Amino acid sequence: MNSPYAHGRVPTAPRLLVSLLVAALVLAGCGGGGGSPGATTGSGQTGQQPGTPTIPTTPTTPTGGPTPEDLNPNLLGDAFGTYWNRCAVPRTGVDFQGKPFPDKQGTLLDELKFLRAWINESYLWYNEVPNTFKMADFTNPVDYFNVLKTSALTPSGQPKDKYHFTYTTEEWDKLNEAGIDLGYGVTWKRNSSTAPRTWLVTLVEPGSPAAAAGLQRGDMLVKVDGVDFVNASDAASVTTINAGLFPETPGVAHRFTLQRGSVSYEATMTGAEVRIDPVKYVQVLDTPTGKVGYLSFETHNAVSEKELVDAFNTFKVAGVSDLVLDMRYNGGGLLYIASELSYMIAGPSQTAGKIFARQQYNDKTPPQGAIPFLGSAYGFSSPNPVRAGTPLPYLGLNRVTVLTTPGTCSASESVINGLRGADIQVDVIGSQTCGKPYGFTPVPNCGTTYFAIEFKSVNNKGFGDYADGLAATCQVADDLSKPLGDRSEGLLAAALSYRATGTCPPASRARQVPMELVRHPAREISILTKPR
Questions:
Q1: How wide is the angle at C-alpha 47 spanned by C-alphas 514 and 33, nearest 5°?
Q2: CA dist list (Å): 483 to 7, 228, 284, 488, 514
Q3: pTM listed for this prediction
Q4: Rounded to an integer, what distance in angstroms lies between the CA atom of residue 493 and that of residue 477?
Q5: Could you tell me where in the chain the CATH 2.30.42.10 domains are found?
Q6: CA neighbor of 373 nearest in space, from 326, 331, 409, 341
Q7: Exposure pattern of 387-404 as b/e (b: 16+ CB <10 Å)?
Q8: What DSSP letter does each residue of 383-433 carry, written as one string?
């Protein structure tokens, strides 16, 4: 499997990407904690949501109730040894990196048995998965996967598992290993998937179709291909809107009406494979008490390793003595990247002999080694890799300020939690984070990559109880009226003020309506028709 511990990037909006280590562990973004370099954490949203199962005309198992295999997955055998890569429709040829597909001829039932056996082996809450579903009632593996999870709630009444999702394997591999996303290069914040909807531009990728069309931070979406985006609710309008917002193939143009202040304007964007830059802004800010580094960081993927190393080399040469780490839109990713980033902040003297994160698995899984604060590069494969074993630059700080929103998830939360476990002061400016102290190792099978929670992550002090999020030191609303990195932008201004005075600014009242992050790779839900 391809994973160094991923907290998993969690999808954070309709048809959004998740949240998310490569052959390590992933802690999730739109939806963490991780295990090894390949695991991901994910940001705070789920991937595809459960749909209504369809019943095949020729059932593959007897009707009338679950079979012994449905009720007792121990009868299924080993998931990876028995059913992995046995596909109803095997792929042929090679993937985007030129590697042959591992698929062998199998059946739909093989794919369903793989999922049931794997969940029983590895899912953190395997004993809370209902045994009421019949394999015979499902005509595709994704619908079946979506019901193989706990239905329990957290103390605040939220779903205990908000991070059960899928990607197409091609999409996930391109996104995680090469930073490539099919879309327009725009990230949105939304208040709701149902009318009336408010969707606002938060990020525009440089060189993307959205940048070419003139979209700017704070613009509001009004129409998609002539359809009233704010108020439409009929099926035909929903279909048109989804097709426009989430292109399935490159090269197709769609028309959008947006509003900037009180002025409306038209924009045409053509879907393309956009390379997402995980580190967009690296600045050195002069203040009366020394140089402060500012780093805008959006996703813990393989591409980010080199960009983070370059950023900290810049800070080190400039003599930076403090850091503002902007992860307000970072939904997660590889835990090894989160560990490397934390080491580059704190340095060796403050992290020696301490763990960055320890993974707590289910009672069927033997104890695993913890992730240390990694002082050398893992060497993730990417278009511009760092050689494995290269010593990482570091600042040796005992304090850092992190900018957050509810879109700060998974591996991003593990940076905060991991540093606090090493007694680094972490001041959080913004909003409570998404709440994902969990992670998974992405598992590909027959063209779909599955993300199911496998572990809870705790820091050096054993703390990892933040399923409802990490609280902000100062509550400050995201300021969409200014570009990121502008010293007058609300969150950055509040961070610099708190650093100087130790006092939080008055609570911001602008746009206090709850908003969630929506970035294209999010394939988790149909933004307009399916519930979260």
A1: 80
A2: 29, 28, 16, 9, 21
A3: 0.82
A4: 12
A5: 182-275
A6: 341
A7: eeeeebbbbebeebbbbb
A8: SSPPPTTPBPP----SEEEEEE-TT--THHHHHHHHHHHTT-EEEEEES--
Q: Please report the sign of the dihedral spanned by the C-alpha atoms of residue 180, residue 372, residue 379, residue 3.
A: negative
Indicate the residue type of 457: S
Q: What is the pLDDT of residues 135-170, one digit of tens each?
A: 999 999 999 999 999 999 888 888 889 889 998 999
| DSSP sequence for 60-73 | SS-SSS--HHHH-G
Closest residue by Cα to residue 397 from 495, 490, 324, 500: 324
CATH no. of 279-356+370-434+469-501: 3.90.226.10
Which CATH fold topology does 182-275 show?
Pdz3 Domain (2.30.42)
- pLDDT of 516 reads 65
Answer yes or no: are the C-beta atoms of 260 and 218 closer than 8 Å.
yes
Q: Which tokens is 216 given?
A: 């700017």
Measured at the CA of 323, the angle between CA 290 and CA 298, to 5 degrees, comes to: 150
Q: Which two tokens stand for residue 471?
A: 């609280």
Residue with tokens 């369903």: 112
DSSP conformation class of 269 = E
Taking the chain (532 residues) in runs of 10, the rounded mean pLDDT of each run is: 44 27 35 35 33 31 63 79 96 91 96 95 94 93 96 86 90 80 90 86 94 97 96 90 90 97 97 91 96 96 94 98 97 93 98 96 90 96 89 98 94 97 98 92 94 95 94 95 96 96 76 52 28 22
pLDDT in tens, 466-507: 988 999 999 999 999 999 999 999 999 999 999 999 999 886
As annotated, the residues of the chain forming the CATH 3.90.226.10 domain(s) are 279-356+370-434+469-501
Secondary structure element (H or E) that encloses residue 181, with its range:
strand 180-183
**Cis amide leading into 196 (omega within 30):** yes
pLDDT per residue as tens digits for the range 273-295: 998 889 999 999 999 999 999 99
**Contact of 362 with 124, CB cutoff 8 Å:** yes
Q: What is d(CA 353, CA 426) in angstroms, rounded to the nearest whole number?
A: 20
